């Protein structure tokens, strides 16, 4: 089956279901953290143990990304989308039906596997729906943000109505079941056979291409830095505002809220740029420079207005889809191994999510300013990497 056979109606329904999964994924990313106190009481344990359970998500990602990415090129993309949904379904039901920390940790690992399986099946599908172009993958970040925006409001409403906390998890279950039903009749695209043969010949001719080798190494490292740049900021920015800049509680928390608003605006702008066939390389360079500049302003200004503007700019540039754009470049280098490179790229992102708290935590022993300042250093490395990616990938594509 080729992409041409997919009707506009089927394409729309497929894209809708794929994006709906990432609203659910937005729930899954924060649902344990948003229910920490309640889960602590429910499991009769400490907040520290609940935090330990949450760390299982990162372990699940590390265990699964390389495997799901590799196998998604061998098996059906649809299978991995369903696998991700099934793991999230088991996670949501399991968390509210157990009082065992060990079983809860296993469920959290499943959530990490769900993340990797969804990525392996979805990013590749969206690229193949658009004949190798990756602008549709950028919007994934926006739908994740929508999920992260809705869930806290839902939990607040449940708490305000004195309802069982588990209804927030049940909402995930209901959405997953409905979406699974919607996906049953839908067929996923396959790359054009003639395009596949052409791309295999291109890859064979590029085996000794130095530019391709350098771009690959830089992209793998960028999978780490692009993830670290975001999570480093979100972990420390509020504390920095309160403890270092001397902001009041509202001003300090507004920094993170503006970051979230900026990320959604960034996704929309990046989607427009890529839809107009603007090259990914220059976009990556500009966005990484803006993100690092914004961090520098926050670290040095210590004034609410400048810091709030800079936080909005940082969200726009660092969390507006530049990680997904980097993955698009990676998939263009390896068009017949899209699932595998997705797995590699996000595997290094998972390493970042696991190691960043350890690194920044150690830096915080010196000071909160040094802890956040480490993110500035990551930004500088990111600028170097995307500059290398831009020039090396151009060389790789020259035949």
From TrEMBL:
Q: Which source organism? A: Ligilactobacillus equi DPC 6820
What keywords were assigned to this record?
Membrane, Transmembrane, Transmembrane helix, Transport
The entry's family comment says: Belongs to the major facilitator superfamily.
UniProt subcellular location? Cell membrane
Please identify the protein, giving its name as recorded: Transport protein
The UniProt entry, under PANTHER family, shows: BYPASS OF STOP CODON PROTEIN 6
Task: Identify the InterPro entries for this entry.
Answer: MFS (IPR011701), MFS_dom (IPR020846), MFS_trans_sf (IPR036259), MFS_Transporter (IPR051788)
Q: Which residues cross the membrane?
A: 12-33, 45-67, 79-96, 102-126, 138-158, 164-188, 209-233, 253-274, 281-300, 306-327, 339-360, 366-392
Q: Report the GO terms under cellular component.
A: plasma membrane
* Membrane topology type: Multi-pass membrane protein
Which GO terms label this protein's molecular function in UniProt? Answer: transmembrane transporter activity
Give a Pfam family name.
MFS_1
Q: Where is the Major facilitator superfamily (MFS) profile domain?
A: 14-399
* Keyword match Metal-binding: no
């Amino acid at each position: 089956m080729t992409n041409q056979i997919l009707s506009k109606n089927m394409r729309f329904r497929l894209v809708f279901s794929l994006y709906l999964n990432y609203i659910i994924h937005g729930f899954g990313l924060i649902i344990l953290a948003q229910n920490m106190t309640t889960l602590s009481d429910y499991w009769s344990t400490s907040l520290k143990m609940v935090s330990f359970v949450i760390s299982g998500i990162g372990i699940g990602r590390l265990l699964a990304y390389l495997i799901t990415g590799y196998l998604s090129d061998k098996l059906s993309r649809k299978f991995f989308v369903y696998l991700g949904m099934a793991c999230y379904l088991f996670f949501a039901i399991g968390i509210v039906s157990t009082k065992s920390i060990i079983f809860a940790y296993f469920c959290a690992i499943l959530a990490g596997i769900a993340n990797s399986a969804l990525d392996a099946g979805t990013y590749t599908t969206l690229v193949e729906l658009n004949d190798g172009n990756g602008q549709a993958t950028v919007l994934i970040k926006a739908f994740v943000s929508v999920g992260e925006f809705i869930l806290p409001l839902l939990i607040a409403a449940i708490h305000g109505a004195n309802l069982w906390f588990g209804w927030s998890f049940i909402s995930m279950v209901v959405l997953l079941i409905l979406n699974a039903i919607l996906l049953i009749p839908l067929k996923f695209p396959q790359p054009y056979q003639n395009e596949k043969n052409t791309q295999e010949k291109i890859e064979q001719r590029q085996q000794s291409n130095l530019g391709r080798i350098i771009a690959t190494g830089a992209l793998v490292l960028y999978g780490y830095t692009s993830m670290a740049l975001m999570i480093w900021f979100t972990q420390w920015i509020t504390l920095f505002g309160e403890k270092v800049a001397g902001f009041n509680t509202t001003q300090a928390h507004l920094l993170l809220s503006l970051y979230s608003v900026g990320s959604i605006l960034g996704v929309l702008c990046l989607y427009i740029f890529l839809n107009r066939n603007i090259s990914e390389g220059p976009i990556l360079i500009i966005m990484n420079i803006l993100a690092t500049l914004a961090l520098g302003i926050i670290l040095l200004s210590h004034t609410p207005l400048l810091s709030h503007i800079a936080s909005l700019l940082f969200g726009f540039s660092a969390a507006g889809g530049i990680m997904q754009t980097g993955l698009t470049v990676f998939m263009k280098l390896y068009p017949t191994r899209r699932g595998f490179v997705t797995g590699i790229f996000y595997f290094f992102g998972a390493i970042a999510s696991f190691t960043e708290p350890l690194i920044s935590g150690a830096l915080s022993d010196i000071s909160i300013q040094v802890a956040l300042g480490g993110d500035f250093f990551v930004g500088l490395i990111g600028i170097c990497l995307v500059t290398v990616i831009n020039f090396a990938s151009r060389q790789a594509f020259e035949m």
